[in-house]
Amino acid sequence: MKRLFLFILLLAAIYLAKPFWEEPVSKYADLSFLDPVDEKLEGIISKDTIESTYHTLRDATEELIGIVSSKTDTLRDVKQPVEKPALAAPTSTPISISNLEIGSSAADVMTALGKPVNQSLNEYGTEWNTYHTDYQNFVMVSFDEKDKVAALYTNDDLISSKSGVRYGSAKADVRKALGQPLTKMRKGLNVYILQDDEGMDLFKLGDVYAYVFYDLHQDSQVTAVELVSADLEDRKKGLYGERSEALRKGFEQQLFHLTNAARVRHGRSILTWDSAVAATARKHSNDMAEHSYFSHDNQEGQSPFDRIKEDGIRFKRAGENLAYGQSSSIFAHEGLMNSKGHRDNILLKGYSSLGIGVGFSKEQQPYYSEEFLLR
Questions:
Q1: Residue 181 DSSP code
Q2: Phi-psi sector, 125: left (phi>0), alpha (psi -120 to 50), beta
Q3: Long-range CB contacts (< 8 A, 24+ apart) of 215-222?
Q4: How many whole angstroms separate alpha carbon 248 and alpha carbon 252?
Q5: Is 254 left (phi over 0), alpha (psi -120 to 50) or beta?
Q6: Is the confidence at residue 282, as pLDDT, over 60?
Q7: How close are the terminal C-alpha atoms of the chain, in Å?
């Protein structure tokens, strides 16, 4: 009799826990063969039996599910580590990225990085060539008309310098090594005053502008560097690039790759591109740009979740990040990473896909919308 009761108790436990384990397990195995079993269980296990065992099993079940969820999240997010190149001190410029410098040849880039994974227009009117292996060793490179490197970016441990500045360096040490950052920059006939931004410093190092980004959540350590030749920077006459369909697509693609690179660097899984919710994001960015507002709720009072549902997109979890006025996808991403709530969205384990939409105001200012989903 005792064995029969224990057997019934076991069946009840499995039946009650089914809503928790069925969905994650179904991703890896076909569970349709259990449908007849469900019908039998519903006949065998009476309502009184279920109710009498429910409270006893609930706490143990939730604890077990928590352990399983934690373990499966860890397994899902593990990436095969990619070997980093041995970094050497730069020879011609103060800072290099993955042993490449401003002025390096296209052949040098091919030897060091191989072929680009993606190419997209940037705010300088040139293309970012994006290189990575599962978003590890992430580098973006732009060439000038002579096929020489005109701009470089990384948010990985690939930074080398003559002065000791590298990934993870403290902000105070960077300023000690490179001097005081610029406080203004001339663009054509205009002089732009640079705000005292805790998350970024701009240095002029000979013929190279160095944008050094800091992680405010990691003791203001260097988290990324963008290098731009003085010639390329000076050719950009305004704060913003000239809006176009190609630049919109470029910003969207770049922000998507930057987000995944940050996730992988922090031990998270890679998100897939979601074109359906990207269209939702793009509509909201365009609406904000056209009507000069900045809010998660649109002017009809619809929340991000309302707008996603209205477009017929089903989801289990969703989140939205917005940014406005940053001159590039790099600046938008680094700013979002230094904002606690936005950073949490970017690094949340419970998302599977991402769609990004960009719109431009009449003043060329970009509006960025990121829509994170668990389908």
A1: P
A2: left
A3: 215/337, 215/338, 216/338, 217/337, 217/338, 217/340, 217/343, 219/170, 220/170, 220/171, 221/168, 221/169, 221/170, 221/171, 222/159, 222/165, 222/166, 222/167, 222/168, 222/169, 222/171, 222/174
A4: 6
A5: alpha
A6: yes
A7: 45
The model's pLDDT over 81-91, given as tens digits with 9 standing for 90+, comes to 889 999 999 99
Q: Are 183 and 207 in contact (CB under 8 A)?
A: no
Sheet holding 353-360: strands in order across? 272-273, 353-360, 366-374, 317-324
| Tokens (6 digits) for 253 | 């693609």
Higher-pLDDT residue of 323, 64: 323
- From the list 39, 169, 16, 36, the residue with the least C-alpha distance to 95 is 169
> From the CA atom positions of the chain, what is the Rg in Å?
25
| pLDDT value of residue 10 | 55
Whether 5 and 35 have beta carbons less than 8 Å apart is answered as no
* Structure token pair of residue 191: 């002089």
Q: Please tell me the least confidently modeled range out of 10-14, 130-134, 315-319.
A: 10-14
Convert the pLDDT of each residue in 155-194 to its tens digit: 999 999 999 999 999 999 999 999 999 988 877 767 777 7
Cα 303 to the center of its chain, rounded Å: 22
CA 231 from chain centre, in angstroms, equals 30
Please say whether the beta carbons of 171 and 214 come within 8 A: yes
| Residues 79 and 209 sit within 8 Å (Cβ to Cβ) | no
Query: Hey, what amino acid is at 248?
Result: R
Strands 353-360 and 272-273: what pairing? parallel
pLDDT at res. 277: 98
Task: Name the residue with tokens 């000690």.
Answer: 176
Check: CB of residue 320 under 8 Å from CB of residue 361. no
CA angle 144, 148, 149 (to 5 degrees): 85
Degrees, nearest 5: CA angle 322-328-331: 70
- Calpha distance 156→166 (Å, rounded): 10
Q: Is the pTM of this model over 0.90?
A: no
